[in-house]
């Protein structure tokens, strides 16, 4: 099944797209990971929203941020895939495409992310390396990682 990939600035999102983004982020980050946190953090408005759709259903998403918004470096955040689509390895495609899209938007620069510790090997497979000690964020172990160019 083909995935339709789109990237939009916040003000270009339709109400339906925004609802689907928030629904997917809620489904995974709040319900599946049993983590109560403030998802709406005032970074969405200045970010680009990278979406993977199949049959009008959002199955993959990431938030692409300019330098100075989350970190001094450009960044990818809120990386998420629907549980129903994980068997097709959509997460790898999402990250590869997110990195490419981030470079198109902001030039090829160092990327910094805050990653859940259990995903360290996943992000290392794209060339990211750990750049911080383990820290707790919303009760979940995280690390900072960078992809240098």
Topology of helices and strands:
Layout: E1 4-9, H1 15-32, E2 48-54, E3 57-65, E4 74-81, H2 90-106, E5 111-116, H3 120-124, E6 129-130, E7 135-137, E8 140-147
Parallel strand pairs: 4-5
Antiparallel strand pairs: 1-2, 2-3, 3-4, 5-8, 6-8, 7-8
* CATH class (first level) name: Alpha Beta
The ordered H/E elements are EHEEEHEHEEE
CATH superfamily: Gcn5-related N-acetyltransferase (GNAT)
What's the number of extended β-strand segments? 8
* Uncertain regions spanning at least 5 consecutive residues: none
Question: What features would you describe in this structure?
Answer:
The protein has 149 residues and is an alpha+beta fold. It has helices at 15-32, 90-106, 120-124, and strands at 4-9, 48-54, 57-65, 74-81, 111-116, 129-130, 135-137, 140-147. It has one domain (4-109): Aminopeptidase (3-Layer(aba) Sandwich). Strands 1, 2, 3, 4, 5, 6, 7 and 8 form an eight-stranded mixed sheet that branches. The model has no long low-confidence stretch (mean pLDDT 91).
């Amino acid at each position: 099944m083909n995935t339709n990939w789109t990237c939009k600035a916040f003000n270009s999102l339709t109400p339906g797209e925004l609802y689907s983004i928030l629904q997917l982020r809620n489904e995974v980050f709040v319900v599946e990971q049993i983590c109560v946190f403030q998802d709406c953090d005032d970074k969405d408005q200045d970010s680009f929203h990278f979406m993977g759709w199949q049959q009008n259903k959002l199955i993959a998403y990431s938030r692409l941020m300019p330098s100075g918004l989350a970190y001094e470096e450009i960044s990818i955040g809120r990386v998420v895939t629907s549980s129903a689509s994980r068997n097709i390895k959509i997460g790898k495609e999402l990250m590869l495409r997110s990195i490419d899209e981030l470079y198109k938007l902001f030039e090829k620069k160092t990327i910094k992310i805050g990653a859940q510790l259990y995903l360290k090997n996943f992000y290392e497979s794209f060339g990211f390396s750990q750049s911080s000690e383990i820290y707790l964020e919303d009760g979940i172990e995280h690390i900072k990682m960078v992809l240098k160019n």
